[in-house]
Design goal:
2 domains; eight-stranded parallel barrel; 15 helices; 12 strands
């Protein structure tokens, strides 16, 4: 096997997320899949049997009656992943949690617990919450602005890593003969007093076999890219083409260098939708059928509304010019995406209806075709420096089964993907280093102060 191989993750959408509102009609999917632990365990074990690196659980905490089915009724990620830790042995367990509405000590402790329960397979997808309505669920009148959201996130990740180092790896002798359970010189309080958070510490949990949970991030704004390049070890993104993927890859890895990091310590994994057929033409027909059956006009309008802070576009005439004033409602929401939609409408003089229809236009995706076609495309992106790996959407179960049965073996035959797990931890399988405990390193280097 070459030193660099493709990394694979799976994203279970349950009864259907954005772009797949009608996915729950698939007879392969239980109507309550999004709250069925047995269903999630089955997906995780299926991916593990194919030697996937991780299962990724997305999340948000604000809904409306127009939200996708999976969003309306789904399990909380860390509770779910803790259950999956007991149903699997090797696959990484990555969950989304926001830095905007979680107490740092509490969330850091929960991820550390998942990391110990899974024996070093936990990962945290750091988000700042784009759904502005979430603020109301936490007693706030309005969501934080962009600068505050990302400022909090950067401080939060540094604080998390410091808390995860509260105990050095040999802090617990547990020596019955001498009666020594803890070496108190290797327990470290934090006394963090920052711009946004104040936490005394120490965390009451030891480090896991991988040292700390793996930090992931997904954000395409300038602040999001900087946050990922500065703090993340894995980046989840989306790219419509190999050229766009390579541009994002080069940009983020370049930012990582400017932050003094090794680009090799950052794994970039675009999310992809795979549709397989016996011929390329058959796969494209199936792709179009699934798009039309899973996603109607009203659902597309709801997707746009979410980007604009759930602005009520229903109050506007569909055949009137796109209401550009809606962009101001996105200032504390998914502003980057809302800005792209507004710019498109302005540049081309589109009505609201035309704008929705344009967003619904689906060019055939790059990963549609026979197993050989899809394997070729994955290899092309990987070798072109557009990705280190891919997040495969688990939408229609039959399609994922076909991917693991037909595409994965081709990648293995080409030496591009493992035939067995390389390590027992998520870090090990992703090829990421185990971070040394900062206090141990400071002692080794003879430093007087141990900075956060």
């Amino acid at each position: 096997m070459p030193d660099r191989t493709i990394k694979l993750g799976v994203v279970p959408y349950g009864t259907g997320g954005p772009g797949s509102y009608q996915l729950w009609h698939d007879p392969d999917i239980p109507g309550d899949a999004s709250v069925d632990i047995d269903w999630f365990a089955g997906v995780a074990r299926e991916a593990e049997a194919a030697k996937f690196d991780l299962v990724f659980i997305v999340d948000s905490q604000f809904i409306t009656p127009h939200s996708p089915p999976h969003y309306l009724n789904r399990l909380e990620p860390l509770t779910l992943l803790s259950a999956l830790a007991m149903a699997t042995e090797h696959i990484g367990l990555v969950g989304t949690a926001t830095t905007s509405f979680n107490s740092p000590f509490n969330l850091v402790r929960r991820f550390a617990s998942l990391d110990l329960i899974s024996r070093g397979r936990a990962g945290w997808n750091v988000v700042t919450s784009g759904d502005a309505g979430t603020a109301g669920n936490y007693g706030l009148d309005e969501h934080y602005d962009y600068d505050t959201r990302y400022g909090r996130a950067e401080e939060y990740v540094g604080l998390a890593r410091a808390l995860w180092d509260s105990y050095e790896d040999d802090a617990f002798p547990r020596d019955r003969a001498s009666g020594v359970f803890l070496d108190p010189t290797k327990q470290h309080a934090l006394h963090h007093d920052g711009t946004y958070f104040k936490v005394a510490g120490p965390l009451n949990l030891q480090r896991s076999p991988q040292g700390q949970p793996v930090i992931f991030q997904a954000g395409d704004s300038e602040q999001g890219r900087d946050l990922g390049a500065a703090t993340a070890e894995g980046i989840f993104t989306f790219a419509p083409s190999v050229e766009a993927g390579r541009a994002f890859y080069d940009d983020v890895k370049g930012r990582a260098r400017r932050f003094g990091r090794s680009p090799g310590d950052l794994v970039i994994m675009p999310g992809i939708s795979v549709v397989l057929g016996d011929t390329d033409a058959e796969a494209r027909e199936l792709e179009q059928h699934q798009w039309e059956s899973d996603h109607g006009f009203e659902h597309s309008l709801a997707d746009i509304s979410r980007s604009f802070g759930w602005y009520d576009f229903g109050a506007h005439d569909l055949d009137a010019p796109f209401p550009v004033e809606a962009l101001e409602h996105a200032a504390r929401s998914f502003f980057t995406q809302a800005q792209k939609v507004t710019q498109l409408a302005q540049d081309e003089g589109l009505t609201l209806r035309e704008t929705v229809l344009r967003t619904r236009q689906r060019r055939s995706g790059p990963f549609v075709g026979t197993a050989t076609t899809v394997a070729d495309r994955l290899q092309e992106w990987f070798e072109a420096g557009a990705a280190d790996g891919f997040l495969v959407g688990y939408d229609h179960p039959a399609g994922f089964r076909r991917f693991t049965a037909e595409v994965v073996p081709l990648l293995q035959e080409r030496g591009l993907f493992r035939t067995d797990y390389d390590a027992t931890t998520l870090r090990g399988n992703l090829g990421l280093p185990v971070p040394g405990n900062r206090h141990t390193l400071a002692r080794r280097d003879g430093l007087v102060e141990e900075a956060v």
